[in-house]
Amino acid sequence: MDALFAIAGKDFVISVSDTSNARSIVRMKNNQDKTYKLSSHTLLAACGESGDTANFAEYIQGNVRLYSVRNSQDLSPSETASFIRNELAGSLRSRKPYNVNMLVAGVDQNTGVASLYRIDYLAAMAKVPFAAHGYCAYFVYSVMD
């Protein structure tokens, strides 16, 4: 019952996610945060299988922070999205691929331009003006198109 959507403007991105964790008809948790702060200007929203989502998002969060510590600069949103796509594509070729759909939102510190990237579990990535994952996608795409 995941729901993530985001809208990008010229210099902003609005991201929305639900907080429920459900499987079939059982709601296991009502307060799960599905957003992860990657840097001061980049946000990752993830949905999918609970274990895969938490594990992969924390892995990405840790590696993005490690890059900024080692290089004394943060990744831009486009660089972050490319890194995530590469890691997800690599996991597809392993025995245990991640079943995670993501939205990467951020504002480039150098140009001030906002960007939104939609990445699905097959590592397909696209820069989009709006995006949705989960059950809300049916409604959001019908309204935003």
Mind explaining what this structure looks like?
This protein has 145 residues and is an alpha+beta fold. It is globular, with a radius of gyration of 15 Å. 34% of the residues are buried. Strand 1 and strand 2 form a beta hairpin. It has 3 helices and 10 strands. The protein is 32% helix and 36% strand. It has a 5-stranded antiparallel β-sheet, covered by helices on one side.
Give the secondary structure arrangement, pairings included.
Blueprint (H helix, E strand, L loop, with lengths): L2 E6 L4 E5 L3 E3 L2 E4 L5 E5 L2 E7 L1 H22 L5 H16 L7 E8 L6 E6 L5 E3 L2 E5 L1 H9 L1
Antiparallel strand pairs: 1-2, 1-10, 3-4, 5-6, 6-7, 7-8, 8-9
Report low-confidence residues grouped into runs of 5 or more.
Answer: none
SSE string? EEEEEEHHEEEEH
What profile does the largest beta sheet have?
Answer: 5 strands, antiparallel
Strand content: 35-45%
Rg, Å, rounded: 15 Å
N→C terminal distance = 23 Å
The residue fraction in helices comes out at: 25-40%
